[in-house]
Amino acid sequence: MRIGVLTGGGDCPGLNAVLRAVVRTAEKQYGSDVVGFRNGWRGLLDNDAMPLDRPMVHNLLTRGGTILGSARVAPQKLHDGLGRMREVLDAHGVDVLVPIGGEGTLTAAAWLSSEGVPVVGVPKTIDNDIDGTDLTFGFDTAVSIATEMIDRLHTTAESHQRVLLVEVMGRHAGWIALNSGMAAGAHLVITPEEPFDIEAVCEMVTARFERGHRHVIGVISEGATPKPGTMPLRDGGLDEFGHRRFTGVAQQLGEELERRTGKEVRTTVLGHVQRGGTPTSFDRVLATRFGLHATIAAHEGHTGQMVALQGTEIGLVPLADAVARLKTVPPSRLGETTAFTG
Ligand code: F6P
């Protein structure tokens, strides 16, 4: 058998570990081989391929990013290119395609599968917002990085009696803010799931200083929004993929907070540092197990499926089900945080 692989969307620590596991399992267990397509779906449209064998994936376990490169491709371009993608897959003798990606890549994978292309999906994203899997690899690394950065902000905030706001990634889901905020003892966590009330934020900050505390640490997801009509947030419009362009919610919240409370506020935007560098041991293991089980699924004919962490086991869920909705933070988890912060 020949497996085709590609990595799509934003990169994520652990992608290389999946590639390594796919190649090693395919060769060792099945005597199969693997071809990689560069830069996500673009590699399939442009016939930009590279053979992947064991020497090629040597030393990849600890390496962040993806040796295949990654890119976003507009859905319309993909739909128009179905015939071309079939031709390229046939030309390379690919029996099963394993796309490794987030919401966009897996939605495209589900569509390809519905068009009759044999596909096994692998979920990745630091945002942890793919449904049907308990976790995605990359998330643990991003939370660890964010936690370390927030830990460091406590002392400087205390020294200056300031409010320090940290903006973390999380377009639609606040998992990174929630977990890094809890791990680093933040006093305020704001996620996209629940629009924030600037009045309530001001009251919390003022009350905390009045109680004699010397600092406030707030963690905010990049995709957070204020309750309508409570404070302005600049509109960045949409990018070519239909994604909202962010305009720096933490900075704007900080300016408003400073104006209303008179407290000094500083803002740190963590940005792509959360996606860079080596994966944590947890993510290396999850990515490796996903690669292993995707390769087994491909050989056993379980196509149209996505590998998923279910408790401690790796199972399969239909791709169509996995992409039907995003996995956002449930109110119960948000409630756990508000129960003791402030
Ligand atoms: O989906 C993962 C993610 O890191 C989001 O949290 C973030 O909004 C987006 O990718 C950033 O994408 P880009 O690297 O294209 O700016």
TrEMBL record:
Pfam families: PFK (PF00365). It comes from the Bacteria. Mg(2+) binds at E103. Pathway: Carbohydrate degradation; glycolysis; D-glyceraldehyde 3-phosphate and glycerone phosphate from D-glucose: step 3/4. ATP binds at G10, R72, V73, G102, E103, G104, T105. It is found in: Cytoplasm. Residues 2-295 form the Phosphofructokinase domain. GO terms for biological process: canonical glycolysis; fructose 1,6-bisphosphate metabolic process; fructose 6-phosphate metabolic process. Its main location: cytoplasm. Its EC number is 2.7.1.11. InterPro entries: ATP_PFK, ATP_PFK_prok-type, Phosphofructokinase_CS, Phosphofructokinase_dom, Phosphofructokinase_III, PKF_sf. The active site is at D127. Its cofactor is Mg(2+). GO terms for cellular component: 6-phosphofructokinase complex. PANTHER family: ATP-DEPENDENT 6-PHOSPHOFRUCTOKINASE 3 (PTHR13697:SF52), PHOSPHOFRUCTOKINASE (PTHR13697). Homodimer or homotetramer. Catalyzes the phosphorylation of D-fructose 6-phosphate to fructose 1,6-bisphosphate by ATP, the first committing step of glycolysis. Belongs to the phosphofructokinase type A (PFKA) family. Mixed-substrate PFK group III subfamily. This is ATP-dependent 6-phosphofructokinase. The lineage of its organism: Bacteria, Bacillati, Actinomycetota, Actinomycetes, Geodermatophilales. The gene is pfkA.
